[in-house]
Amino acid sequence: MIKDLLKETEARMRSAISVLEHDLSGIRTGRAHPGLVEKIHVEYYGAETPLMQLASISVPEPRSLLIKPFDKSTLKAVEKAILASELGLTPNNDGQSIRLNLPVLTEERRRDLVKLVNHRLEEARVALRNVRRDAIKDLKEFETEKLVSEDERKRGEDDLQKTVDKMIAEIESIGKRKEQEIMEV
Fold this sequence. Notes:
This protein has 185 residues and is α+β, with helices and mostly antiparallel strands. It has two domains: 2-25 and 106-183, Ribosome-recycling factor (Topoisomerase I, Chain A, domain 4, Orthogonal Bundle); 34-101, Gyrase A, domain 2 (2-Layer Sandwich), CATH 3.30.1360. Helices cover 57% and strands 15% of the residues. It contains four helices and six strands; from the N terminus they run αββββαββαα. The strands form two sheets. The protein has a four-stranded antiparallel β-sheet, covered by helices on one side. The chain has a two-stranded antiparallel ribbon with strand order 1-2. α1 packs antiparallel against α3 (107-144), α1 runs parallel beside α4 and α3 (107-144) runs antiparallel to α4. The radius of gyration is 22 Å and the shape is elongated.
């Protein structure tokens, strides 16, 4: 019973980490990659649709992205969504496709991006702590319902804390990697 709870808790923590990695992939570094714009939501026939479902995204040069919508009528909507995003990029629309040129990041902009990364890391840590809190509550309920003994509950809490520590270390290493990527000139 406790093992099942710990497996479920670890799976929830893993999903929080994968959300973090997905979020961080959208924070731009010095070079262009499709992950920067894939998750931008575009208003398409009244529905918010991810850009990657509406267009092909390629990297013709290290500092530029080329977005070719499958439906040319979505060009304006894609352009509007890019301008509204937190990327700070100006799209160049040639009537067929949109080109995004990534300027060289200034030192100040790099620091701002590192702050954003740290904010996202803290959100992930909070998510892990929330999962831990729920699991501890479940363990205490198991004990009050006489499903486990006090010793088993304490052992379960210790195992849970070890898992949390391991996940937080993983979050820290992800953050360090992204920070180095951003600060790399």
